[in-house]
Amino acid sequence: MSELVLHHYPLSPYSEKIRAIFGLKGLAWKSVITPVQMPKPDLLALTGGYRKAPVLQIGRDIYCDTALMVRVIDRLYPTPPLLPSAHKASCAAFAAIEQTLFFAAVPTVFQPAGLKVLMERLGPDQMARFSADRAQLFTGGSASRPGPEFGKTHFLPLMNALDQQLQASPFLLGDGPTAADFSAFHPVWFIRNNAGVAPLLDPFKGLLAWYARMTAFGNGQPTEISADDAIALARATPALQAPDGPLLELEGVRVGSDVTVAATDYGVDPVAGRLIHASVFEIVIKRVDDRAGEVVVHFPRAGFKVKPA
Ligand SMILES: N[C@@H](CCC(=O)N[C@@H](CS)C(=O)NCC(=O)O)C(=O)O
Prior knowledge:
Blueprint: E1 4-8, H1 13-25, E2 28-33, H2 41-47, E3 55-58, E4 61-64, H3 66-76, H4 88-109, H5 112-122, H6 124-137, H7 148-168, H8 179-192, H9 205-215, E5 221-224, H10 227-236, E6 258-263, E7 271-278, E8 282-289, E9 293-300, E10 304-308
Parallel strand pairs: 1-2, 2-5, 4-9
Antiparallel strand pairs: 1-3, 3-4, 6-7, 6-10, 7-8, 8-9
The structure holds glutathione.
Glutathione binds next to α1 and α3.
């Protein structure tokens, strides 16, 4: 089996979701640190245009969006299972509120107390570039950049609901962790990792006890490699991962045709290639890159649109 390569950066909450899953499953993985903002030429050599963090690479298979990564990692390393049959719909429900939790956490961190800590970490120039980049990230998609009002109205009620549920069981859906816990974990991690806003969570004892259980899983065993090494690995790998789910062609788009695939919410940069598989779970295209060679890029079916090229 080809090794797991995660393209990510330390500050990224969605990346922490996958790092924590590596921890739960006790996995060794290769770590490629990507820039916090555009340009990301090495990442785009693999994805063809998708720019969000993280991206998972297995040889020359490139997985965009953590919703799909959860499925792939669980299929390759099934113990303990993240998506047990008895909890499938509940995991999907938590996946559906994940973005609301994240969008509530982001403006909470960007309050003056949190911003001060971020500014110390990144420096004023990097902060200015970061803000301009995030304005661009939210251009052209269905989602708006979450502002302070969204944080104020959503953050504490959501944290309170998680806290109440976690007083009744060690993990969100019972005695063991599932994908639901990882959907909720990374926005809490984002808050807790910023000393300026971390105390906002102090009243939520059930949530904090769960947070300690989640962080105790660690991040598995990362080994840092360069982006060039990751691109060379894609070029040198002949094998491909199995498609996920039986063929279910998209409305009006046939396998074998040239398409573009793009997220619909934010970070909507299209990726062009030939459609090689479509199922209820994923959309898969093949593309050829000057540096990476022939790569296969996977997107979740939900939240992505496909257009004939
Ligand atoms: N739905 C995506 C969301 C990923 C996401 O929003 N990641 C943030 C970082 S935590 C991002 O990409 N920000 C812009 C960037 O890093 O360039 C997923 O589940 O992977």
